[in-house]
Design goal:
single chain; 2 helices; elongated
């Protein structure tokens, strides 16, 4: 991803948050956004572990 795409995505999220705070957008979309934010860490952890562990067993060895 190039820097312009990152800048555009950050600008879009900032714009949406500002619109929600000014109550220009419906509350239902803000509620969905908050739900998405709560689920995001779980998705990030899943993708991080699946991408960077390369099939390595991360469970502890209990002997």
């Amino acid at each position: 991803m190039d820097i312009f795409t990152v800048y555009f995505l950050i600008w879009q999220v900032t714009f949406l948050i500002a619109e929600w705070e000014l109550q220009s957008l419906p509350l239902i979309s803000f509620t969905s956004y908050r739900r998405w934010l709560r689920m995001l860490p779980a998705f990030m952890a899943y993708f991080f572990l699946s991408d960077f562990t390369n099939g390595v067993d991360l469970s502890p060895d209990i002997d």
